[in-house]
Amino acid sequence: MAAAWEVLGVRRVHDGRPFVAVDCETVRLPDGRVIGDYHRVILPDYAVGVPILTDGRILTQWQYKHGAGAVSLTFPAGHIEPGETPEVAMRRELLEETGHAAAGVVGFGGFVVSGNQGCGRAHLFALQGCRKVAEPDHDDLESWELRPMHPAEVEGAIRDGQLAILPHLAVWAVTRARLGL
Known about the structure:
The protein folds into two domains: 6-42; 46-179, Nucleoside Triphosphate Pyrophosphohydrolase (Alpha-Beta Complex). It contains three helices and eleven strands; from the N terminus they run E-E-E-E-E-E-E-H-E-E-E-E-H-H. The chain is 20% helix and 48% strand. The chain is elongated and about 60 Å long. It is α+β, with helices and mostly antiparallel strands.
């Protein structure tokens, strides 16, 4: 049976908080071996959600993502601020990035992005009954085009390789599976 590793020590090797930090851990494995340089990447938790408009179309964002080095189909997403719940953060990001509010939110849970290094926890949501209530108001470095699409069009874009970011693919897949889009 699998057992947890014991952390014997932690040394911060890079501190770029609040965006990124890297720790070097000394860990003892269940078989007794000690590893002195196990690196973990600390990123903030974030929320990402699929906005479903009142007419059943999906509100997508098309933007350049520097980590992927590509223009990609994405969904609203952003860091969870101190004191926020994942759902509150998701509703805030939806409003800031798209000017839309959701009538209902379905949460699918939070998932570690990298099983080995950590890299933050992605909280996945479906945002139902979205309607425009304001103009987008964000201060991100990125700019994007909002594009309502039918679910079949989103699937086609994915098949064509136009979605480059794994958590966005994951939230789409779980939304489709759980809500039957």
